[in-house]
Amino acid sequence: MFHFIPDLKKVKDMFKQFYILLVLGAALSCNAATPKLKKVPDSTNLEPTVQQSIVCKTVAEIISKYNYKKVDLNDSLSIVVFNRYLKGLDENHSYLLASDVADFNKYKTVLDDDVKSGNLNDIFYMFNVFRKRYEQRIKYSIAQLEETFDFSKDETFIYDREKLPYAASVNDLNADWTKRVKYDMLNLMLASGDVAKNKEVLRNRYETLLTQSSQLEADDVFQIFMNAFTESVDPHTDYFNPTNAANFSLEMTRQLEGIGATLQIKNEYVTVATLVPGSPADKSHMVNIGDRIVAIAQGKDGEFQDVVGWRIDNAIKLIRGTKGTLVRLKLLPQGKTAADKPIIVELVREKIVQQEQLVKEEIHTYNSNGKTVKIGIINVPAFYSDYKGYKSGDANYHTTSRDVKLILDTLKSKGVNGVLIDLRENGGGSLAEAISLTGLFIKAGPVVQVRDPEGQVEVDRDDDPSVAWDGPMAILVDRFSASASEIFAGALQDYGRALIIGTQTYGKGSVQNQIDMDKVIPESVTERLSSIAGGNKTAETKTVMVDGKQVKVKIAATGSESTYGQLNLTIAKFYRVTGNSTQHKGVTPDIKFPSVIPLDKYGEDTEPSAMPFDIIAKSDYTRAGDFTDAIPQLTRLHDQRMGNNPGYKAMLDDITDDKKSEAEKSVTLNEAELKRQRDAEEQKSLDRDNQRRIALGLQPLKKGKIKPKYEDLDFLKFEAGQILTDYINMDNNITHLN
Fold first, then answer.
1. Got the DSSP string for 465-519?
2. Which residues pair with 238 in a beta bridge?
3. Catalytic (active-site) positions
4. What is the DSSP string of 247-277?
5. Which segments of the chain have a pLDDT < 50?
6. What are 348's strand-pairing partners?
7. Cβ-count burial of 620 within 10 angstroms (0-12 exposed, 13-18 middle, 19+ buried)?
């Protein structure tokens, strides 16, 4: 996703009038009478908080006044929100009854009024009904494990029920879930014939689902609903609760402040899954993969908080924190039991850079017409920026353009002839980084145009005349290349600076501003909420599972998360220097590959609430080159190679099979027939993998043999490099940079 951060003064001016209204509105909402939450019998009823009510009302106010689309919060939008929320709860129509949905229908045209007033009781009631039905289904599944399964019958299980009506009765649901459990069991039976062991595996799986359901919190419900609300306005206006806001920040900066361990839940224990090399946890030599964290404390004197049975995100909140602060862990090493005394480890939090998510390089050598050509391939996973590190003077701070510049220097020293930038699955990020990265390959000039809701257009330029790479280059894109990726690829295509290879990109041409809700909601409201909660501003109450029982605990604040979360608000639309928007249409490659990602399922043009394509006046820019004459010849050479390439044929066959699979809605429950189908699919998959291997000059694998761990079978990447090689070897190639 792409995010544009305008000047802070502009943001303050934008919301200046809104602040005054908000102080009154939010303060009043603390005292305003709202309807009581309708309780769901025989259910643990989650309830909305006053804090969530204030956030909802505030977000609704901001969106109605400042979203680029200027959407009215009316009954028409309410129906869209209702349908999205219902889909978010039970998309597959597997849990709710038709009578439940009929009961919910009374809220169809009132959700707009609910968000404007901050009334969340209606959506929490809907969720509590869903949760009750969900747990009923899981408990029914556990009960079915007492039955004897007959896998010789010619039965069929319909797994895709999205377009089917909701079940009319519990008996109808039972009939469906009997087959669902049978299918789960059949999958295990195909791997092992031990019935008792397979039933125990399923029992543990289902009981884990019940535990996870019991750990759901009001924040989870609120996030699901806010997703439905904001996405009904436009696909890229998003609200993130405090936990998700922190995770979003990690995505943008590619770093966090913590101890450098990834965690997972195993048998109700928060367990160390991996360690980041050189991190505090790794350097301590006291934290190991498989260790179980049983308690966490802040600082030298903080009390230990028992975290057995906790959700993983609540434990992470306590472990993450500000660089330089101390966190203490009680650990049970592998092999120790709950009766053993845990060890205590003290760790000072540090900045943890997620190296695996940064820009990477590789070099591939091509032999063409007796010539050896070296292509430097740079994988750019996102447009990230450690702005905080830059401001603090960190000599090792990371940004996309800075990292790419260093890699280009390395590639030049190794004598590469061309550079391929791989933007596949790059969903975007920082606008500033998209501009800076473009500037590495062009002389000074406009890069992107941004139009605000009033129609005013700002042209963002690269003002640095220096060029990091002036040789031949290409950019590889796919359907998930979006936003900042489209700005970069579109600009270099418009300048005639790079060949664009791949498939049509996503088509996200909107601009978002990150709004910290803590800076929007006045301190007076925060203090009032604190007094309502008993004056404790350093902890929040969460319900966790301990030994199968729900227990309320206090989670101490570590300073690593916000209080109210973050709103990413669509405030503008961006355009290429030609004046064309990338909205809906994206960037069209010069040389096209078939799309392995379904174009009719993913992309801006599949989003009902997306803005349309349009055109504004072009910028004053000078093209650096022109591939027009080269593209037909390059396409011909590419087509000739693909016509006889077994890897290409395997890819086309996969695309065809994927389309067939999309149309399938059911599966057989006959063991012999399903085994026959699975064996055939497994053989087909092996044959196609071997086709790819042969195309890349690798030896085919025999059935059952595991392929080498670090083997690269990325056929499209190699072909993109070959296309760039073809261009380099052309006699009439263009001047690379004027």
1. ---S--S-EEEEE-TT--THHHHHHHHHHHTT-SEEEES------EEEEEEEHHH
2. 568
3. 483, 494, 508
4. HHHHHHHSEEEE-SEEEEEETTEEEEEEE-T
5. 1-32, 535-538, 544-549, 551, 553-554, 734-738
6. 326
7. exposed
